[in-house]
Each structure stands twice: as structure tokens, then as C-alpha cells.
Design brief:
- The complex is a heterodimer of chains A (185) and B (212).
- Chain A is an alpha/beta fold and 185 residues long.
- Chain A is 40% helix and 18% strand.
- Chain A has 6 helices and 7 strands; from the N terminus they run ααβββαβαβαββα.
- Chain A has helices at residues 5-27, 35-38, 76-92, 109-119, 130-135, 164-176; strands at 47-49, 55-57, 65-71, 97-103, 125-127, 144-148, 154-159.
- Chain B contains 2 helices and 12 strands; from the N terminus they run H-H-E-E-E-E-E-E-E-E-E-E-E-E.
- In chain B, the strands form 3 sheets. In chain B, strands 1-3-9-6 form a 4-stranded antiparallel β-sheet, with no helix packed on it.
- In chain B, a hairpin with a 2-residue loop joins strand 7 and strand 8 (134-142).
- Chain B is flat and about 75 Å long.
- In chain B, 27% of the residues are buried.
- The chains are: A alpha/beta (185), B alpha+beta (212).
- At the A-B interface, helix 1 and helix 3 of A face helix 2 and strand 8 of B.
Chain lengths: 185, 212
């Protein structure tokens, strides 16, 4: 029986695509988005406890440009950028800029507080959860930093330590985008 | 070479081999065409998947076991199991005694065994190194290969034979720009327990002191 090579070609292509999709789906834990898919969309909301026992809901910061920094006490590169964040919070805070640190380690709350006090942190730190990290595409690299405009949309992300000027550029962009409204917090 | 790259290379090689042999559109040749095209598409899809994958950092574990030789020990006598680990190029992990209380030390835990006592675990001294993210601060780390010795002592009553000892190495890796969550590497090594040689007691009747 003679087979049409064109049909064989298409059957092979379909099988290959199905295999590829299957492999991709199995590698994608649950419905975890990739950070690339999140860009331009409203950042996944969360409500997490702060170090001082309050609750912080990300969407309450709508109207402000937000720098969302995932970090851990064991992360030395994270320590390098923290003094910059302290300065940037002071400099751009009056324009409607807010940094939120999300700690992703297993250290006790007391140890984290000790660490942030030693670093002179002047912005809220929330105790992170894996589910929040997953909603942001997974934060398997620390530091991982996201930038949200005033509408809460993700406009940029950075993996690993960056130069201070990179952060400044993203902050300026975040401040210039979206509607400035009175944030609830 | 990562598994993904190896898969792509294997697919392309298979494609080239099968297409070279396909001379006619016979029934057998059609099957070859089918599989060769399938392999080509799978290979191309893998390349595409690699290009879209924007995860950074080590895909798997940054540390692996490179040597865990079989250790032979005699019943009741102590011996040392020398384990060699390798930190992937470009990464470092904290030593067992990092300089800061906030850093996660590298720790080997060995499961208890009913036939032998797990003794002291000896870690190497780390190297004091500074990294690009903070040239002024030195961290005590392991890079490349490092050895951890595990002291073991089979009980006198332990049966001779081969035993598998299991454990885990907990570590936390970083590179020049970022850190990665702590990981736990499964570790196992074989211990061969040999029978203790029979003890020769002097015969009191043959001893010159016996008649004194």
C-alpha cells in the first residue's frame, strides 16, 4: 500500500506537537504562570502578615508604584540591594512609591526582624508563602524583584542582583504609568 | 550538557541517520519517513521549549556526589567513609561553619542504623572568598570538590555483609548574582562488614607461668 508522504508528515507533526505540549504541561507545576506571562497584567493579589503583626494586602497599594522584592535572610546578594531600597523608599516615597519585601525563608519571625532591624529597613516586610511565590511564576531565584505601576500592573521583573540604576529606571517608569489615586494604606 | 540539549542532539542524529537510509517511498521507507519527521519535530519543539524557558539558576541540584567508595570495616572496629561532593561550576555553597548566623550551613545527616554506630562527621574547612555581589565581604564557602568523612563502627554483633547507609546533604547555593532556596541531596554509600579475626587465647597449660 502506497502512503502519501504529506499525510505522514502532518501526522508526525501533530504527534510531535502533542508530545511537546504534554512535556511542557508536566514541567509546569499546576497552573503556575511564567513570569513572562504575567507582564502587562495586574499583579496577583495577596494578603500576608507583616513583621509587626499586621496584614498587608497588595491591592490596597493601588495608586502607588510598587517594588515587590522577594528575598531571604540567607541571601547575600539580597543584602547588597537593601540599603539601596532604603534610600529609594526615602527618595521616591513622597511621589507615591512603595517597596514591599517578601521574605521567602524558613527563619523565625524574630530572626527576620533582627535582620531587618540591623539593615535599617524602612518599608514593610511580609512573611512570604510558597503559594504567593508560585502565583508570581515561582521565585526559585533570590532576589527576584517585580515592579508594579500605579494600576497594579506588572511592568518589569529582575532576577538576581542588579545595579542601582536598573532599579531607578524601573521605579521612574512605574511612577509614570497608571492612575495616581489615594492608596488605602 | 543538559538533558534537554542531549535530547535535541539525539533527535537530530536519529533524524540524520534515518533519512540517509530512506531511499524509496516503499512501505518500510514510509515508516522511516514518519519516524524521522517525528524526531525532527520533537527536536525542534525541544529547542523552542528551551528558548521559552526563562527560569534562571540551577535546573537541578547544584551539588552532586562524585565518590562514595565501598568501605570495608571489621565487626566492632571503627572505619571512615570518605564522601566526595562536587559543587557545580559557577556556584558556591556555605561551609559547615559559615560566618553569619543567617547563612545556612552545609550539613550531612546520616540515618541511624541498627547494626552500626554513626560517629562524627568531619567537614573540611571552607575557603574565605568574596564575590562580585559584595567584594568587601568574605564568605566561608565550598566550591568545586569537597570531602566529608563519616565515622562508622559496626557493632560486635553485626552480621557480616554489605549494608547501604543513607543520608542527606542539606545545602544552600548561590552564584555571583543570586541565591537559590536550600536543597536536600540524597546520599548513600555501601559499607561492607567483615568478620573479626578469631582471637587466639594463649593456652594456660603451656604457659611457663602456669606452674609457678
Amino acid at each position: 500500500m502506497k502512503r502519501n508522504p504529506l499525510i505522514l508528515f502532518f501526522v508526525a507533526a501533530i504527534v510531535a506537537v502533542m508530545l511537546s505540549v504534554g512535556v511542557r504541561m508536566s514541567r509546569n507545576h499546576g497552573n503556575r504562570p511564567t513570569p513572562g506571562q504575567l507582564m502587562g497584567n495586574v499583579a496577583p493579589d495577596f494578603q500576608l502578615p507583616t513583621l509587626d503583626g499586621k496584614q498587608l494586602r497588595l491591592s490596597d497599594l493601588r495608586g502607588k508604584a510598587v517594588l515587590l522584592n522577594f528575598w531571604a535572610t540567607y541571601c547575600e546578594p539580597c543584602k547588597v540591594e537593601m540599603p539601596w531600597f532604603v534610600e529609594l523608599q526615602q527618595q521616591y516615597g513622597p511621589q507615591g512609591f512603595q517597596i514591599v519585601g517578601v521574605t521567602m525563608d524558613d527563619a523565625s519571625k524574630e530572626d527576620i526582624a533582627k535582620f531587618t532591624t540591623a539593615m535599617g529597613i524602612n518599608y514593610p516586610i511580609v512573611i512570604g508563602q510558597d503559594s504567593v511565590g508560585e502565583s508570581y511564576g515561582g521565585v526559585g531565584v533570590l532576589p527576584t524583584t517585580f515592579f508594579l505601576d500605579r494600576d497594579g500592573k506588572l511592568i518589569a521583573r529582575e532576577f538576581g542582583l542588579q545595579s542601582r540604576s536598573v532599579f531607578v529606571d524601573h521605579i521612574k517608569k512605574a511612577l509614570s504609568q497608571g492612575q495616581a489615586v489615594q492608596a488605602r494604606r | 550538557m543538559t538533558p534537554e540539549v542531549a535530547r535535541v542532539v539525539a533527535c537530530l542524529v536519529a533524524y540524520l541517520v534515518t533519512t540517509k537510509r530512506t531511499a524509496t517511498w516503499s512501505s518500510l521507507g514510509a515508516m522511516k519517513i514518519f519516524f524521522s519527521v517525528l524526531l525532527l519535530f520533537v527536536g525542534l519543539a525541544s529547542v523552542g521549549a528551551l528558548a521559552q524557558d526563562d527560569d534562571l539558576g540551577p535546573k537541578g541540584l547544584a551539588v552532586k556526589v562524585v565518590a562514595a567508595p565501598v568501605v570495608t570495616v571489621v565487626q566492632g572496629k571503627p572505619g571512615t567513609a570518605p564522601l566526595t561532593f562536587r559543587v557545580a561550576s559557577g556556584y558556591h555553597i556555605n561551609s559547615n561553619m559559615p560566618k553569619s548566623e543567617f547563612l545556612i550551613p552545609t550539613v550531612l545527616k546520616v540515618e541511624a542504623n541498627t547494626d552500626m554506630v554513626i560517629g562524627k562527621i568531619t567537614y573540611p574547612e571552607g575557603q574565605d572568598m568574596s564575590f562580585a555581589f559584595d567584594p568587601d565581604e568574605k564568605l566561608n564557602v565550598y566550591t568545586g570538590d569537597f570531602n566529608v568523612d563519616v565515622l562508622i563502627r559496626p557493632l560486635h554483633t553485626a552480621q557480616s555483609g554489605k549494608y547501604v547507609i543513607r543520608g542527606t546533604l542539606k545545602y544552600q547555593a548561590c552564584d555571583n548574582k543570586a541565591c537559590y532556596p536550600p536543597k536536600t541531596l540524597p546520599v548513600s554509600f555501601d559499607v561492607k562488614i567483615a568478620k573479626a579475626p578469631p582471637v587466639h587465647h594463649a593456652n594456660p597449660a603451656q604457659s611457663p607461668d602456669a606452674h609457678q
